[in-house]
Design a protein that fits this description.
Length: 444
């Protein structure tokens, strides 16, 4: 188990304070519990920004930071739920202000019940207020009420910040570059997810159900210390694999079909995001093999683009070129490579982007362009490379190609030398997959 490192979070808060304009305050609310039905709630998931800055795991908390000259090294205040044995007996343990202060390194911790009373004096006198606008409507309303009150009391020499600044401009940029601490967690999340994919491949058999493969994945996540998937797991057999966000996972696996799994665990808030596609009963047909090898070749060509100063657009262009060329060779597109790319004919079979940032959110924050130009890759960025080909049951091509959906997705860290693939633990070469499944068929 990777340990919580308080200093990592203190350092992130210090960095944020140093990047804010002087005499500013920043407010970051936690997530709240969401009702699932009547009086039951969805399993709690902390807000990514809040988690990034303090690692505090409870709902109904606020983080408030100030770099006013009054506080030499910045002020870091947490509001959290107070201890209450009778509530805790029903709803679960609370850390409480006293322990929170020590364990998480805050300067002051107040009971959340005192928020309205203290918010006024905390905001008063700052020039800027940093907040993620429209992200937390209820908290925003409380803050705007407080600003209105401050503006209405100038005679008491109270002063509302003159400007509201979007805190995400600073935070997204910080989150895009992963520290060693973050990379270690993401490496582990990737390893666990890779092993879960192997288990799911080994479990695959005609007559079993998509949701049973999902259960195998989630079981392995949990057995290795990751309580939750990072996003809704996709297990799509045959034509279901052509629905990009297929999460029903309700169908029976059929011999002769491919099954596409897109699944990754969440570990200490960080996501892994792996896709693999394999034959239900262990052997690729000729058509499946051709298309699979094409997606794999496109992915490998994209990997070659992942290094400092390269760009995701370059990787995207390379994938489009390899896939278009391959589809022409297989007779699934007609004409020249150039005209197919110009008119985006490949989009009939490959309709999504090839990459996204990965981190606390599976589609993580961070700008993809800077001043309208491709952002150069740099060490510390973590991203996916995930080409695919999807030929739906009603596609206007020869019948033998239909009902095949393939995606191969890995997670890469950009390093000074090039990149490190975090998800090497799960096979993707055709022979490796067939060998793995043959072995598990023999054993079962
Ligand atoms: N699993 C979502 C994605 O691959 O982007
Ligand atoms: Mn992805
Ligand atoms: Mn994915």
């Amino acid at each position: 188990m990777l340990n919580f490192n308080k200093n990592e979070f203190i350092e992130r808060r210090r960095q944020l304070l140093s990047k804010m304009q002087s005499n500013s305050i920043c407010i970051v609310p936690s997530a709240t519990l969401l009702t699932r039905s009547r009086d039951t709630e969805f399993s709690f998931r902390q807000d990514s920004y809040f988690h990034y800055l303090c690692g505090f795991p409870e709902p109904d908390a606020w983080l408030i930071l100030s770099n006013s000259a009054e506080y030499r090294s910045g002020l870091c205040v947490l509001f959290c739920q107070g201890k209450d044995p009778s509530v805790e007996m029903w709803q679960g343990r609370r850390i409480g202000p006293r322990v929170a202060k020590r364990q998480f390194g805050f300067d002051i911790v107040f009971d959340i019940e005192d928020l309205d009373e203290r918010l006024f004096e905390l905001i008063d006198g700052h020039d800027q207020l940093y907040f993620a606008l429209h992200e937390y409507p209820e908290s925003e309303e409380r803050i705007l009420d407080c600003l209105a009150q401050l503006r209405s009391a100038p005679k008491q020499s109270q002063r509302a910040p003159a400007s509201l600044v979007d805190s995400r401009v600073i935070l997204d940029e910080m989150r895009l570059f992963k520290s060693t601490y973050e990379v270690n967690i993401m490496r582990r999340a990737a390893e666990i997810s890779a092993q879960a994919h192997i288990k799911a491949m080994q479990f695959s058999q005609a007559g079993r159900f998509e949701y049973q493969l999902e259960a195998v994945l989630h079981h392995e996540f949990a057995m290795q210390g990751a309580k939750h998937p990072a996003y809704s797991t996709i297990v799509g057999c045959g034509d279901n694999a052509c629905i990009l966000h297929y999460t029903e996972n309700s169908d029976e696996l059929k011999a002769g079909d491919l099954v596409l799994i897109d699944a990754g665990c969440e570990l200490q808030g960080y996501a892994a995001d792996i896709s693999r596609t394999f034959p239900v009963s262990g052997a690729f047909s000729a058509e499946q093999r051709e298309l699979y090898q094409l997606v794999l070749d496109a992915q490998k060509a994209a990997f070659d683009c992942i290094e400092p100063n390269s760009s995701l657009s370059k990787a995207n262009r390379v994938v489009i070129e390899v896939i278009t060329t391959g589809l022409l060779e297989l007779g699934l597109l007609q004409g020249s490579v150039a005209e197919n790319i110009e008119h985006q004919h490949y989009k009939a079979f490959f309709m999504h982007g090839v990459s996204h940032w990965l981190g606390l959110d599976v589609h993580d924050v961070g700008n993809y362009k800077i001043d309208g130009r491709d952002r150069p890759l740099a060490p510390g960025m973590v991203l996916t490379i995930e080409p695919g080909i999807y030929i739906a049951h009603d596609a206007p091509v020869a019948k033998r190609w239909r009902g095949i959906g393939i995606r191969i997705e890995d997670n890469l860290l950009v390093t000074a030398e090039g990149h490190e693939v975090l998800t090497l633990g799960v096979p993707k070469e055709i022979e490796q997959i067939e060998a793995l499944m043959k072995q598990s068929n023999l054993e079962s």
